[in-house]
Design a protein that fits this description.
- This protein is mainly alpha-helical.
- It folds into 2 domains: 14-72, no CATH class; 90-152, no CATH class.
- Helices cover 64% and strands 0% of the residues.
- The chain has 8 helices and no strands.
- It has helices spanning 16-24, 37-55, 63-68, 80-87, 92-111, 116-126, 130-151, 158-173.
- α1 crosses α2 and α5 (92-111) packs antiparallel against α6.
- The chain is elongated and about 95 Å long.
- The chain starts with 15 loop residues before the first helix and ends with a helix.
Length: 174
């Protein structure tokens, strides 16, 4: 069972068990700590800001957020960040943070020399949306072509160079 962060009960305005239920959902073994759904909704409304500050960032949201604010967004434990990213719920800063983490994982898969199948498995593990991975792969290929072109410029056409040089001299001699 997940536990509240060490500092969560220092300034937690709720009973820790209630905070945990709003964060992770109803405990399947013990049931709800609230007497009814209305009490859960009231607790969410009253403590939403604190709960979002503690548990609603870095590509994650508390379970109560899904229930009361965005029931249209399906919860997926394994794909929470990509689901929220596709739903467009992140602030610009949070989107940039999550995409930066995904990009690090994308580059990690390439740096480790993974073949295509292992890269795709790594992207799934890291919850990188396939559409972002495809875009970054295209950008990476383009970047690689540019670097190779700068590193190994084509050999100059010596005949063309010499013929131009000779033409310039004959014009000067005339």
């Amino acid at each position: 069972m997940a536990e509240l962060p060490d500092n969560a009960d220092d300034d937690c305005p709720l009973d820790p068990a209630e905070a945990q239920e709003l964060w992770l959902g109803i405990n399947p073994n013990l049931g709800s700590y609230f007497p009814d759904r209305e009490a859960v909704e009231t607790a969410w409304a009253r403590h939403r800001d604190w709960l979002m500050q503690e548990f609603g960032s870095h590509g994650k949201r508390p379970m109560a957020w899904y229930v009361f604010e965005r029931p249209d967004v399906p919860f997926s434990d394994d794909h929470e960040s990509s689901t929220l990213w596709r739903a467009g719920v992140f602030t610009e800063a949070e989107r940039a943070e999550v995409e930066r983490e995904w990009y690090c994982e994308f580059e990690h898969a390439h740096a480790r020399g993974f073949d295509a199948a292992r890269r795709r498995a790594h992207y799934r593990w890291a919850d990188i949306p396939p559409e972002l991975a495809r875009r970054w792969a295209v950008e990476r290929r383009c970047r690689g072509k540019t670097i190779r072109a700068l590193k190994d410029p084509p050999a100059p056409d010596v005949k063309k160079f010499l013929s131009r040089k000779l033409q310039t001299r004959s014009v000067e001699d005339a």
